[in-house]
Amino acid sequence: xxxxxxxNATCPTLGVALEAMHEAATHASGNPSSMxxxxxxxxxxxxxxxxxxxxxxxxxxGSLVFTSGGTEANNMAIFGCLSIAKKGKVVVSAIEHPSVxxxxxxxCERLGHELCLVRPQKxxxxxxxxxxxxxxxxxVMACLMWANNESGVIQPVQQVVDACKKLSxxxxxxxxxxxxxxxxxxxxxxxxxxxxxxxxxxxxKGVGVLVIRRGVPCETWAxxxxxxxxxxxxxxxxxxxxxxxxxxxxxxxxxVEAVRDGFEEKLLANMSDVTIHGFxxxxxxxxxxxxxxxMDGETLLMQLDLAGFxxxxxxxxxSGKREPSHVLQAMGVGERAARSSLRVSFGIEHTADDANAxxxxxxxxxxxxxxxxxx
Length: 375
Ligand code: PLP
Fold this sequence. Notes:
Elements: E1 3-4, H1 15-27, H2 37-57, E2 64-67, H3 70-82, E3 89-93, H4 98-111, E4 114-118, H5 128-133, E5 139-143, H6 157-166, E6 171-174, H7 186-189, E7 193-197, E8 208-212, H8 238-247, H9 257-270, E9 275-277, E10 287-291, H10 297-306, E11 309-310, H11 326-330, H12 335-339, E12 341-345, H13 352-372
Parallel strand pairs: 1-11, 3-4, 3-5, 5-6, 6-7
Antiparallel strand pairs: 2-8, 7-8, 9-10, 10-12
The structure holds pyridoxal-5'-phosphate.
Pyridoxal-5'-phosphate (PLP) binds next to helix 3.
């Protein structure tokens, strides 16, 4: 039996999203910029999807810029902000997704900005006071994610956004792992830039959105036909955007909290030396990241894979690389322990049976590997 427990990497595309994409691709295949009937029907689908997404996020439709995903949305905000800022300091948490960390590091180096990385506490949560203490009149941008993709820990974004507003510091909140997993009201949050991705909520891969607060300057690198109000030229991917809109609000990860909690309870009961990261702090409901001492995470992952369980040993975007998780390391977890870690992220179809079967399999694999190592 195969069990997919890697929803933070991506989740299966929902039937409603596939239907919406099929409908858009077959019945509205014109170019939304064309003035004729074919263009107008594509435009209608695009506008409807834009309105639906804007409504869900509680923002104006005109503040959305569709992108090829969360990575591009983060890149767009960072380049858009830093390329027109005077030389200064960028404050960013050390647990951001690589699409923020790498991009910030690149542009800071190219443009001569100073980079200030704020480490989280041991529990995986950034201390809002420590983060805000780094903001000053030289700060040209700040970035803090809404929820971390590896630990699931929810970050104090509201306090940081409020502090940034007082100092007029543009702020990016990466909301990719928050969407569908908690209440997301972008207007109430008030960040200058907020990014999302469709495939984490059952929409298609390769489409995302950057929400830019009205009046916030954002330079563009994608010049051409002037689509997306001149912010990202290029013919819009109408079927993908339609699929994104159709997927919104369908998954409710909050319902899997009992499954995740049951999994962790049984895990600790059967493997008392396991450490669950972020256990004592607010996390999104579907995520569990833990260290199994003395075991290699990649080996566990492969053994679980053989038994039909798909889990992650670190961030999806960096899997394949053998470097230990930068998130765990920033939390003060040693390299060995970081390499002994797994991330399980449940989806709405999972039940206590799946959680129990995973623990049973982990126990079996560990004793097998210990036996093979002569321990
Ligand atoms: N930000 C976070 C927090 C993520 O978890 C991911 C993907 O794992 C991304 C950004 C990138 O999104 P995409 O895969 O749509 O480029």
